[in-house]
């Protein structure tokens, strides 16, 4: 029997975990979760992870990108298969906020706890020490499909060779995005005027 298919595309927003929970409740057997997402709401990503873990019989296929919050349900799957052109990125959660100094310190403390919790989750599913995962998150680490398999964030690379479309997103918002994703965002009008300079261009300008 063919596995039922659920699509997780674009930004992860409130309600995504509820939609997945309803889908999984209606399909008790094997399910394939297709991901092409730059991430989004970190807490919603954690809820998606919980639903995938609870169901158990979930295979994830990443086509395009699984970044930030989208990697939480990805690593929770029983099997993770990446398209050869897929990219994976993990980093520390962030927040756009304002307020008093005390309020900002409280927000920072919450973000620290979220980072620790997610690092432990990645470590549980990949077998890496939490300290190593935390260092990768702090550095904002981008992985090719081959690197993701080598580092145990995924199990295998699928045999298809045709390039897959990357999810529309302003990749200049990330601290160290690959040059190719920055150019893709700029060429397609996804960039919103960020002045980010990819690492390779910084080296060339030095």
From TrEMBL:
Domain of life where this protein originates: Bacteria
Keywords carried by this UniProt record: Cytoplasm, Hydrolase, Protease, Serine protease
Protein name listed in UniProt: ATP-dependent Clp protease proteolytic subunit
Classification via InterPro entries: ClpP, ClpP/crotonase-like_dom_sf, ClpP/TepA
Family of this protein: Belongs to the peptidase S14 family.
GO molecular function per UniProt: ATP-dependent peptidase activity; ATPase binding; serine-type endopeptidase activity
BP-aspect Gene Ontology terms: protein quality control for misfolded or incompletely synthesized proteins
GO cellular component: endopeptidase Clp complex
Pfam family, one: CLP_protease
